[in-house]
Design a protein that fits this description.
Helix content is 45%, strand content 9%. By secondary structure, it is mostly helical. The protein has a single domain, classed as HUPs (Rossmann fold), CATH 3.40.50. It has a 3-stranded parallel β-sheet with strand order 1-2-3.
């Protein structure tokens, strides 16, 4: 689910939510059981997770919601909009990231309501991030291994993240 306006960070050379939505759709096109939700791109203003979860719960009141985040992001949850409400609405599944461990996630969350449902995913650490993909695209480095061939082609075709300037100079 791409955000319309990410509230916590400005992305240099942000291509806009329409391009990010298209790239998400390309990414999951051949993945059975996965789909892209445009809910946040259809709302005006910043995309706050608590608002999205509230909207999903209102439309599907019996659904059990789980927010999946990397450990680096999980540590920042106390600074998010209405973090206690967010933790009431959804369990949090935390994926391992380089330089993080369970303690580094649980310590910042301890200040929040103790009823948070936190689950640590047992999976290999995959060192991929959107900032790494953007940096490599801007530098002219291959990104297929990070975003897949279809998304890499889309980025090049539309000149996103500095790709057009690079392609024109070849």
């Amino acid at each position: 689910m791409p955000a319309r306006l990410p509230p916590h960070k400005a992305i240099e050379q942000d291509p806009g939510c329409e391009h990010r939505l298209a790239m998400c759709r390309l990414l999951v096109a051949r993945c059975d059981g996965l789909s892209v939700c445009a809910l946040e791109t259809e709302r005006d203003g910043p995309s706050y997770t608590v608002d999205t979860l509230t909207s999903i719960q209102a439309s599907q009141p019996h659904a059990e919601l789980t927010l999946i985040v990397g450990a680096d992001i999980a540590r920042t949850l106390p600074a998010w909009r209405e973090p206690e409400r967010l933790l009431e609405l959804a369990a949090v599944a935390v994926a391992a990231r380089s330089g993080g461990d369970c303690h580094s996630v649980l310590e910042p969350l301890a200040a929040l309501d103790g009823t948070a449902r936190i689950e640590f995913l047992h999976s290999p650490v995959v060192d991929v991030s959107s900032s790494l993909a953007r940096e490599r695209a801007a530098a002219g480095a291959p990104i297929d291994d990070l975003v897949g061939g279809a998304v890499a082609g889309y980025i090049a075709e539309h000149g996103l993240y500095g790709a057009r300037a690079r392609a024109a100079s070849r």
